[in-house]
Amino acid sequence: MKISIDDLKKLRQDSSAGVADCRAALEDAGGNYEKAKKLLVERGLEKAAKKEGKETSQGIIESYVHQDRVGVLVELRCETDFVARTDEFKHLAHELALQVASMNPKDVAALLAEEYIRDTSMKIADLVKLTIAKVGENISVARFARIALGDLND
């Protein structure tokens, strides 16, 4: 089957998956773009499941302050410093900080179980898994802290 180069480019841009993965998904989907996109997500989640349990000793601390009233620090970990410097990883850290600022979860487990504020059809755990699939390494939310002006949680 002949795969459209335009579809291949668009799928790569939309999914951040590798060219070979995009081509395989399009071929398996018979050239159907939407079906190929779903296949990439499914395959990415399978890859993410295989990464679970790998040690995450590198990462970043993301900070976010909302209107000088709420401050958040999130420690997000990955396997290598190379991945910690990628835009995808940094974007995830920022999205997690926004989530913590707006929803005030009590702990990491509660954060991962929450609906994602930008897309309520997915949980935060799903967002993390999608990023794992994109970067090819295990990712874990180590901890976070949220401070709001006037909170007295001593």
Automatic annotation (TrEMBL):
InterPro entries: EF-Ts_dimer_sf, Transl_elong_EFTs/EF1B, Transl_elong_EFTs/EF1B_dimer, UBA-like_sf. Coiled coil: none annotated. Residues 71-148 form the Translation elongation factor EFTs/EF1B dimerisation domain. One of its GO terms (cellular component) is cytoplasm. Keywords: Cytoplasm, Elongation factor, Protein biosynthesis. It is found in: Cytoplasm. Residues 80-83 are annotated as: Involved in Mg(2+) ion dislocation from EF-Tu. GO terms for molecular function: translation elongation factor activity. Its main location: cytoplasm. The keyword Protein biosynthesis applies. Belongs to the EF-Ts family. Associates with the EF-Tu.GDP complex and induces the exchange of GDP to GTP. It remains bound to the aminoacyl-tRNA.EF-Tu.GTP complex up to the GTP hydrolysis stage on the ribosome. HAMAP family: EF_Ts. This is Elongation factor Ts. It comes from Candidatus Gottesmanbacteria bacterium RIFCSPHIGHO2_01_FULL_46_14. The gene is tsf.
